[in-house]
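Final report, closing paragraph on structural work. Over the funding period we assembled a curated collection of sequence-structure pairs, and we close with a single example.
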Amino acid sequence: MPDGMTTESIRWAAGRLKDKIEVSAAELNEMDGALGDGDLGVTMSRAARGLVEDLPNLPEDVGMALLRCAQTVNRVSAATFGTLLSTGFLAAAKQTKGRTSVPWNEVPALLAAALQAMSDRSKGQLGDKTVLDAIGAARKATEGLDEPAALVAAADRAIAEAMVQFRDLPFRQGRARIFGNKGIGRDDPGMVAFKRIVESLA
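Its predicted structure, as stored:
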C-alpha cells in the first residue's frame, strides 16, 4: 500500500465500492422506501458504476481525480444523496489539488472538509440523524491515524457506534422527519450507505 492516497488507490476504492453496492443496493432501497423515495440503492449503484466507467480518465493529480469523481457522480446520480456525495468529493478535491500523493493522516481533514460542505449544501447539522453524523463519527475516530487498514477499521467501528446512538432518536432532516417519533428504532439510510462505503474499503 502506498504511503498516501494516489489516483491508483482511488481507482482501487471505486472498484471495491461497485462490488459492495451491487450486493447492498436492495437493502438500501428497502430502507429508503420506508422513509422516502426508495431509490438510495439505485442512486448508489449509478454513482459506483459511473465512477468505475470513468476510471481510465482519471488524472494523476489526486485533487483533479477527485474533482472528476465529483463531476461523474453529479452527472449520473442527481438524487439528493448523489448530490451530497458529489459535494463531498468536490470539497476533498479542493484540499488535494496539485498533489499526486496525499498522506493518509490527512484523511480526517478531508472528511472534515466534506462534512462542512455537505452540511452547508443540505442545511443539515450534526445530531440530525443523517449521513453527516456517520461522517462526523468517522472523522473523529480517524484523528491521528496514518495507516489505511487502521483508518478503515476505526471509521467502521465509529459509524456502527453512531448508528446505535442515533437509532432511538427521531429524524430531524429530510422527508424522514415527517415520521416524527415513528422514526425511533430505525437507522438512517444515509448512515447505512456511508457504512457500506467504508466497509467496501476493508
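The chain has a mean pLDDT of 93. The chain has one domain: 4-200. We thank the funder for supporting this effort.
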